């Protein structure tokens, strides 16, 4: 397959580059911000028409959760209107679009894992902007997969692992929220699943729909930090705190548990153990 990827510098996009460069059967073109600026949605549709690919993966997004509170209009264009324009162009060519979304579309109440058909009620501007993207992709009428994931980490870019390694080396103790429950997901695993979805949607467009994909087992951010320090050999202590003791501009959902069973059943992609992925990330960061 000839795949067009929006995003080149992000965590998932970088892993897609590694995955596809090692592939005998796929080739891909990665569009950075200069090649396709998602704040100008029509340039995204034009890029798809010009490339005429077999499938499109959107790995670009406005991901600055707190900043989005002050820039909701821009976040909505990038995360809402741009995926809508991509989906329209893909539908016109009858090619699949794989679009990545987030646990932050859910309200975060309760302690039951969210299924893809559960009601959404984002609690922050980033979540609202991602929900707009989901709705626009579904409305376009072409083959698609919306892949909701959570707590993405990798050796690339900025993420919680990198923040903890930096702070954990500087401090003896960190206070970390322990009442937000979910699962870290390694960008490498997301890349593999996006590719599998693109492949399978090409011959089986009836698999179109909204899916969940995250790592296993469940943990809190505090639990995640402890595992990072244990694997990295850092002696920094972690004190559990409630979200109320760590005020941020954007409210985060307390319940980020995702029921990923449909992704395994439909696409053969089970939840990977994020602790194995974390080991790979730490090894990659050493070299
Ligand atoms: N990070 C996370 O914890 C989570 C992410 N997701 C979703 O997963 C997907 C991938 O996220 P991730 O890999 O972490 O993203 P990153 O934050 O690592 O990267 C975001 C990418 O989007 C690009 N981008 C931002 N604005 C624009 C724009 N106006 N035009 C073109 N490109 C732009 C960035 O380019 P540049 O380098 O030029 O800024 C960068 O390549 C996104 O859809 C995100 O919403 C879902 C759950 C959790
Ligand atoms: C640095 C730090 C963070 N925290 C908390 C704040 C927050 O609740 C949690 C994680 O912080 P972050 O800012 O990395 O998280 P955040 O940017 O909200 O991460 C989210 O990003 C978007 C893009 C998504 O789609 C989500 O799935 C999720 O991964 O850790 C502490 O409690 N103590 C600390 O010292």
From TrEMBL:
It is an enzyme of class 1 (oxidoreductase). GO terms for biological process: dTDP-rhamnose biosynthetic process. Its EC number is 1.1.1.133. It catalyses: dTDP-beta-L-rhamnose + NADP(+) = dTDP-4-dehydro-beta-L-rhamnose + NADPH + H(+). The keyword NADP applies. Keywords: NADP, Oxidoreductase. Pfam families: RmlD_sub_bind (PF04321). Residues 1-285 form the RmlD-like substrate binding domain. Catalyzes the reduction of dTDP-6-deoxy-L-lyxo-4-hexulose to yield dTDP-L-rhamnose. This is dTDP-4-dehydrorhamnose reductase. It comes from Pelagimonas phthalicica. The lineage of its organism: Bacteria, Pseudomonadati, Pseudomonadota, Alphaproteobacteria, Rhodobacterales. The gene is rfbD.
